[in-house]
Amino acid sequence: MRQYPERIQKLLKDVVYHFDQEDRTVRDAQVKTAKRLKLLWDGFTNTWYSETAHDWRIWDESQTDETDQAAYDKPINVFRAYLESIIAALSIIVPPVKCYPDNADDTLDLSTARAGDKIAELLYRHNNVSLLWLHSLFVFCTEGMIACYNYPKESKKYGTYEDNKYEDEPEIHEYTKCPNCGHEMDDQMVTPEMEQIKWKMTQERDKFQPDNEDVPIQEIAQGEQDICPACMAIITPLIERETLIITRLVGVTQEPKTRICLESYGCLYVKIANYARKQEDTPYLIYSYDTHYANVVERFEHLHGKFGKEFRDKVAASTGPGTDYEEWARINVQYKGEYPINNVTVRNAWLRPSSFNVLPDLEEIKELKKLFPNGAKVVIANDLFAEACNEDLDDCWTLSYNPLADYLNHDPIGLLLTSIQEITNDLVSLTLQTIEHGIGQTFADPAVLNFNAYRQLEAVPGGVYEATPKSGKSVGDGFFEAKTATLSAEVMPFAQNVQSMAQLVSGALPSLFGGAIEGSETASQYSMSRAQATQRLQNTWKILTTLWKEIFGKAIPMYIKETKEQGDEHDVQMDKDGNFINVFIRKAEMEGKIGKVELEANENLPLTWSQRKDIIMEIFKAANPQLLAFMTAPENLPVVKEAIGLTNFFIPGEDDVNKTYDDIKVLLNSEPMPNAIDDMGTIDPMNPEISSIQVDPIFDNPQIAFEIVRKWVISEAGRQAKVDNEPGYRNVLLYGTSLKQVLMQQMMPQQGQVPPDGAQEEPNPLEMQEAPITGENDVQTVQ
């Protein structure tokens, strides 16, 4: 990471602090609302806001002796129940995406678009997108705007790849040329050994009294003339030297692989401009989080020793940028108002080049724009500058756009349920108190009932006790019963109306989560009621799916850019038939350009398991031959089994499908064999090769096996094997041809039962003659 002088660091910090303090009052109100919804989600419904602590406090009357109200506060978390119903309805499936080429006529773009589909599946697995989708829905319900962060991350836990290290080295070449025609007769690299030999040759020419040992060197030294092979002239060659720069492989290192990580956050962690109506309108984005200072030092080693106790006390007492409002709002609600003293707030600020214009000096603005032409990412730990780099905000962040709001920041769905939660708490508390205090108190005349004697007796059902009525009065006149409270008859109807209003404002109707509905409660009514309930959620579904395709529109190109040096990538997947296959993402496939990323499915809400089951059962009930043929195809059998819930149900032909796929794997790992037609091993010139696995005409099912082989050949795996494994691909083709031949041989006897000329056997007129209906004695049997 590039190190910047303190003057540049100070300028960047000034820009970050300027936007961090922008609209601080409005920002505090947003954080206050979001934190309250988080507390309601976790079941802390009795809360109050402390202006002194700048945080929500959890009301606990059990610690006071003034009232016994805590005995009646038994809150029921309807806030979370309604929101979980909405989240569950929208998280049945994660919407898949589809890559489109930039140019449909460009083969490189087409190949890259197909690779983009495989990259999307890989990103789905790397990021556990089902949980990411759930968390995004949770943020939308409790915080409002969703901000998704995509970034590359290197780690050896993702695997390693070989990185070849090259260095440029100079080489001296000596060229021997003909002085007549310029023909290059020889090219030799000058090495230290050659230089030593030439020095010796020079010495041998002038050596005094040479002996027999000097004969070989003298012969070399005297060979000064040569014949040019081009012009055939006897020449004295010209010798020229030239220095060339040669790139050589000097070593191979193991480098960690890179993955693209996806994370989603809400307004508690991400601050943007409140006046922004579109993502490009916000000049900044500040993502803040709190962690132990040891984690910060691990990431930024130059900050070691700067988070001691004195520094932490100073920061805790400061009222500058990074006040306690947001820090207290982000901590775990289980702290219940306490704050971890060893935490450090890390602010990651993405600044557009236009944001530098807040500085007063024009020269400083030009300097920052030159250093960060695409914008700056600035990291500040508390008040300490950590790092900065040139990075584009829009390449890393995707903000959700709500067409039902005027600005990017908008109220969450859960805000509509806060009043419902408060009313429910009051109704439950009031009902419990009324029930307890509704038990009447009885007053008795001591002259009628002897209290001392009554206390000595055991109270038993139907017991008889002594009582003395007053003169001229009955025993009942000596007792009086007073009721202190009676539940109003309007309470229960009002409670039902409150729940109806909760369903109205949230859109979580009873049929969405399996509750009872009014009417005859038939299956068709339940289906219609669920359709009406999901209709309300279409708006939320469209917002989330649009955000989803925009996220992967950035993540897929980022993967292509960051992982090109890693070479080919492969992922083990399971096909629809339950077979494990290797899906390769090759470097050669990523040379084109992806035009756009769209949703592969339609924009309607996904079907639940029960809905899929109902659709399949209706198809079977219709008994349409063409639809039944589709449903009973080998490729659709696993889908049918899963939909009807009978996963252990045996379907004829399933084992034949599995055996064929196993045979294809063996065929791909071997090569075709020569086709010997006699005992001498003579090769058939018409069919020189046969597959390494022979078809068994007795036990194999050639009809199913041939269809599986045909499907594999035209599939993406087959087309890729044709390029990467030509012998294995040819082996599978020969096996399929053998299956076709056996299938035709089995069909020939059935065709032979029909006369060749197509004539049918004439019926016997005696067999078709009916007996006359003239009486039983008249009927005769024809022999």
Helix/strand layout:
Elements: H1 6-20, H2 24-41, E1 47-50, E2 55-58, H3 78-90, E3 97-101, H4 107-126, H5 129-142, E4 147-177, E5 184-189, H6 192-205, H7 215-222, E6 226-227, E7 234-235, E8 238-265, E9 270-271, E10 284-292, H8 293-299, H9 309-317, H10 324-330, E11 343-351, H11 362-371, E12 376-381, E13 384-390, H12 393-396, E14 397-399, H13 418-437, E15 441-444, H14 451-456, E16 479-482, H15 491-506, H16 523-536, H17 538-563, E17 569-574, E18 580-585, E19 594-599, H18 609-622, H19 625-631, H20 637-644, H21 654-668, E20 673-674, E21 689-690, H22 702-714, H23 716-724, H24 726-752, H25 765-768
Helix pairs in contact: 2-10, 3-5, 4-17, 6-7, 13-15, 21-22, 22-24, 23-24
Number of helices: 25
Cα end-to-end separation: 109 Å
Major pleated sheet: 5 strands, antiparallel
Report Rg.
43 Å
Task: Record keyword descriptors for this entry.
alpha+beta; 783 residues; single chain; five-stranded antiparallel sheet; 25 helices; disordered C terminus; 21 strands; four-stranded antiparallel sheet
If you had to describe this structure to a student in words, what would you say it looks like?
- With 783 residues, the chain is of the alpha+beta class.
- It has a domain at 609-747.
- It contains 25 helices and 21 strands.
- The chain has a five-stranded antiparallel sheet.
- Helix 3 crosses helix 5 (129-142), helix 13 packs antiparallel against helix 15 (491-506) and helix 22 (702-714) runs antiparallel to helix 24.
- The longest helix is centred in the last third of the chain and has 27 residues, at 726-752.
- The chain is flat, with a radius of gyration of 43 Å.
- Residues 318-322, 756-761 and 765-783 have low confidence and may be disordered.
